[in-house]
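TA notes, week 10

Several of you asked for a full example with nothing omitted. So below is the full record: structure tokens for the whole chain, then the designed sequence directly under it. When grading your own attempts, check the secondary structure regions first.
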């Protein structure tokens, strides 16, 4: 009889792409394995997971808004109903193990699994975990982490330091630089900056890039710029109005392995998976952590690199005033870029997905 796996979570690419990487590795080891994803209705996973070839069920669940909102009053009731839905899914699907990767649905599914005494595993991506995973730590069998010192938050005997899973096309790093330049219609002789604000975009980063477009262009720098859906029209209008060649804006970059291949420098948020990908590809980076992330975990993620001289940090509130000059400073300092690239490469864990799946199969045995 094939083993059955539930993988739960989502909300952003930072949760979804690692989940798919785990599923792909399970399938590579056990072709007949049955994998069911459980996400949140209306969230990104409901589109991305089926596109990757997997079945997904959506729970009607949402999180607390940080500012006052009447919708917060409904959150406990939604969570209770989501746990009941999760229990029904467990009864019907009968998984051997449940894997939580973070996101609203993950908490309900892991809690339900613990009630049914089904082995469960948390894949904690950040250096500073959220309150939900800390509360669930006592109920799961294993917690896979990416950073040192996580025993401050979780029972040490449950920890496995595996690293974070990244997309296979990024982890394999094929030699595709010439293809990448052609794909993005770039001049191979020019310095290229890749700007990524996460799968949903980052307003402060976008506004900072917009403010510095002319300055960067005048210095011979070309951009590959992922704006997110909400900013793409404004970015394209600004590029058209200014008439700047070499600036390429996209709502979402599907071929991220090609984008990394052309990048001489990366500007990015500091989500856990973004940081893990930067380590894998070994690119010098300017990190601008999202300041409203739960427990400010993006700043903690960024500092793990900064403390090893493996990235440059700009605070979100300083992005508009500092980003342009910081890019130009690194453009002019090849030695600094080389040092950052070498140091960030030392932090890579290219076999993370395999180690996580090792732990998953141990739970089944």
């Amino acid at each position: 009889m094939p083993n059955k796996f539930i993988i739960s979570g989502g909300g952003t690419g930072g949760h979804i792409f690692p989940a798919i990487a785990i599923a792909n590795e399970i399938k590579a080891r056990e072709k007949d394995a049955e994998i069911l994803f459980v996400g949140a209705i209306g969230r990104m996973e409901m589109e991305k997971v089926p596109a990757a070839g997997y079945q997904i069920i959506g729970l009607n669940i949402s999180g607390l808004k940080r500012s006052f909102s009447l919708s917060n009053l409904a959150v406990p009731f939604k969570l209770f109903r989501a746990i009941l839905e999760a229990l029904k899914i467990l009864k019907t699907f009968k998984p051997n193990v449940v894997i939580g990767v973070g996101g609203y649905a993950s908490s309900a599914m892991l809690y339900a699994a613990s009630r049914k005494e089904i082995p469960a595993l948390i894949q904690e991506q950040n250096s500073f975990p959220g309150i939900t995973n800390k509360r669930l730590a006592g109920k799961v069998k294993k917690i896979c982490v990416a950073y040192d010192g996580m025993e401050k938050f979780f029972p040490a005997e449950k920890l496995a330091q595996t690293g974070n899973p990244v997309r296979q096309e990024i982890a394999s790093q094929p030699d595709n630089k010439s293809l990448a330049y052609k794909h993005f219609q770039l001049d191979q002789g020019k310095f290229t900056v890749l700007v990524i604000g996460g799968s949903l975009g980052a307003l402060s980063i976008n506004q900072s890039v917009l403010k510095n477009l002319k300055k960067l262009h005048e210095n011979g720098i070309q951009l590959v710029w992922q704006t997110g859906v909400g900013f793409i029209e404004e970015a394209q209008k600004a590029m058209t109005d200014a008439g700047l060649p070499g600036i390429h804006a996209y709502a979402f970059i599907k071929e991220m392995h090609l984008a990394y291949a052309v990048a001489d420098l990366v500007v990015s948020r500091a989500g856990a998976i973004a940081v893990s990908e930067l380590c894998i590809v070994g690119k010098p980076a300017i990190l601008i952590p999202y300041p409203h992330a739960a427990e400010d975990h993006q700043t903690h993620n960024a500092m793990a690199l900064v403390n090893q001289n493996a990235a440059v940090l700009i605070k979100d509130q300083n992005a508009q005033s500092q980003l342009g000059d910081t890019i130009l400073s690194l453009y002019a300092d090849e030695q600094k870029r080389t040092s950052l690239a070498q140091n960030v490469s030392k932090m890579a864990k290219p076999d993370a997905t395999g180690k996580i799946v090792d732990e998953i199969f141990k739970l089944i045995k």
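The domain at 4-164+350-364 is CATH 3.40.50.2000 (Rossmann fold). Use that as a sanity check on your answer.
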